[in-house]
Design the sequence.
């Protein structure tokens, strides 16, 4: 009784891929990427100029935010200065009361 031959033939994956032929890619090839249309130097200059100018809406929005920020700062300053004035008045009153007592 002989042993059973359970060897399997080796299949070279590279050779099998070559025998199937070139694979069909879904996306653009490198050649397509290299041959894509590009803007001329004049168009590039125009785009850069547009970027430098910026958008008018953004400038208006920033201006409005600056105004709001200034108003908010002014309110906060008034609160702080009001608190400082009241505390300084209290200190002055305390100093005068001490001077009156020491007389």
Sequence:
């Amino acid at each position: 009784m002989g042993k059973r031959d359970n060897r399997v033939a080796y299949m070279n994956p590279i050779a099998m891929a070559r025998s199937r032929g070139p694979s069909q890619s879904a996306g653009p090839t490198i050649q397509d990427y290299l041959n894509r249309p590009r803007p001329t130097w004049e168009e590039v200059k125009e785009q850069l100029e547009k970027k430098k100018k910026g958008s008018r809406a953004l400038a208006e929005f920033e201006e409005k935010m600056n105004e709001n920020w200034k108003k908010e700062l002014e309110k906060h300053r008034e609160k702080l200065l009001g608190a400082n004035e009241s505390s300084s008045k209290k200190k002055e009153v305390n100093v005068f009361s001490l001077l009156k007592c020491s007389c």
